Amino acid sequence: MSAPHPGLDELVATVALLRAPGGCPWDADQTHESLVQYLVEECWELIDAIEAGDRAEMLEELGDVLYQVLFHADIAAHTGDERFDIDDVARHMTAKMVSRHPHVFGDREAETADDVVAFWEDLKADEKPHRTSVLDGVPRGMPALALARKVLAKAEKAGVAAQDAPWPAPAEGSVVAPATEEELGRQLFGLVAAAREQGLDAERALRAAVREFEAEVRRAEQPPASAGNLH
User: Rounded CA gap, 72 and 85, in Å?
Assistant: First the structure.
């Protein structure tokens, strides 16, 4: 059993105090929806700290993200039609992680990370039987590049490759595959710069292309039409 976490308990109590009557008017006025912009900003600031390798900054930004989680949980705890608190969030996550790791908590075997990834999709499907497409559950608010990468990975599971996109394939030799991430970054930067010169929005353009590709994936997932009774 792990040791108590008095620092975490103190932060939970601090959030509750700030949002209670007599606390901070701004904190008391916030809703799940009003906090979305801050959650997004704090997550990106944490990413910056991780990529910069700045451990002091990472400590601070992890705290900011944690604070957002506690803030949302406190709002829910005082909202009549929600009524869950941070302990409910933690218990739900623990149950989810136990379910997702039968090779640790059950009798399933997995020796490598690839073994784990191979059966995770089956576990997710069992948890969410209402999903009918591999694309269901992909967050629509992701930045375009991250969204494209996510959709391509999901599409593979439906047997759809980038080459199956509903637009003409580029001429042979017209696309130079980058050898490194540094080279890729420079190519992407050049594309964004060229788009800007033409008055085009690279983010919006890529999101539109992803939507077209998603439609192709969903078509591929549909069962073939029955030929019917020929007699």
Answer: 9
What is the residue-wise DSSP string for the chain?
-PPP-HHHHHHHHHHHHHHSTTS-HHHHH--TTTTHHHHHHHHHHHHHHHHHT-HHHHHHHHHHHHHHHHHHHHHHHT-TTT---HHHHHHHHHHHHHHH-HHHHSS----SHHHHHHHHHHHHHHH-TT--STTTT--TTS-HHHHHHHHHHHHHHTT--GGGSSSPPPPTTSS---SSHHHHHHHHHHHHHHHHHTT--HHHHHHHHHHHHHHHHHHHHSPPPP-----
Cα–Cα dist 101/98, whole Å? 5
154, 135 contact by CB (below 8 A): yes
Distance separating alpha carbons of residues 205 and 196, to the nearest angstrom: 12
What is the structure's pLDDT at 225? 64
pLDDT tens digits, 58-89: 999 999 999 999 999 999 999 988 889 999 99
